[in-house]
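protein under study:
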Amino acid sequence: MATAASPLPAPPHHGFVTGLGVAQIVAWGTLLYAFPLLAGPMAAELGWSKAETYLLASLSLAVSGLAAVPVGTAIDRGHGRAVMAGGSALAALMLWGWGQATETWQLVLVFVGIGLAQAMTLYEPGFAVIARRFGARARQGITALTLWGGFASTVFIPVTQAMLDRVGWRGTLEGLALATLVLCLPLHLLVVRPDLDPPPEPPAPGAGDGRALPWALRQPAFWGLALAFTVYYATFTGLTYHLYPLLAERGLESAAIVGALALVGPAQVAGRVAVAALAARASIRAVGVASTLVLPLVLTALLLLGNNLVLLAAFALAYGAVNGIMTIVRGAAVPEMLTRQAYGAINGALTLPTAVVRALAPMLAALLWEASGSYDGVLAACIAAMAVVAASFWLAARASPRP
């Protein structure tokens, strides 16, 4: 048993992180990336508008955000295996229920359950169980988990489309439920082992004095980061949920769209690998400023690409790479640009507005589509939003600390 004097645990064992990583691919693929492909056929059968359909996605994201703190607290208390395995079982049940639902109230209950399953199975609980097992050396495992998760769209967008073409949206959901049940649930039961976790380390001197968060809230950098991350993740979430119908509206065939979207995952991984390689030479400030400046240009290219397949592939690669980089910027900005103390509290304060706005994004994008009659209005709003992200992060990077 480890003690305060014992050496830190070794970096995460590849089997532990590999099991979590495979489960991440399935969870992201079934609980998030499948929705845009299934939304159109579902809405057509049920007679729903686009806004009504995407309200379900907003509902699940809202529930996921609200559940994040109690889920994280449960993992901190040693219940990671129950949380993640229970989340996998719940995800399988809700995906199956989604495929059977015929009434509005049934779908509302299903998407409340899907939101809870997202909170119990996606990155945040995965990061938490890694951090609990490996403490100060968890960064390697967390980075590896994001690399695994980056392949979710590559695997599940083509798989979902293939099933959709053959068995319809309801049959596809039954298949996704089965994949979750036979892959995620056993993996979480097998690799998430609280009995292997070391005892919690004693708090660092001064870590619990409550002064770090009030200090951070007085910093211009905090508010610049809060605005940048809130607007970025709202825009990225809304666009991700609508990217498939957006590209279809531009006259692209489903095979071309699926192929392009499948490039997003490897591009995310490539972006994260590039940041890891640059870590010793480039600050998170510099990486974040450069990445956020690219964002409006990437979306402007999407507005202009028409049905050019080469430009479509280039967009998918740039879009994925920038998002992969921003995932790391999001995790490293607090210790580099604010303080290394009270990371959880300060990060939680940054996350709260993000969770609220992110939940509304899919429905707001659908409403904007209905108001403008096409996705051009949605894209114009996204470009303006990404310009706000770039300006906010730049101001945060330049801000001087206040006492």
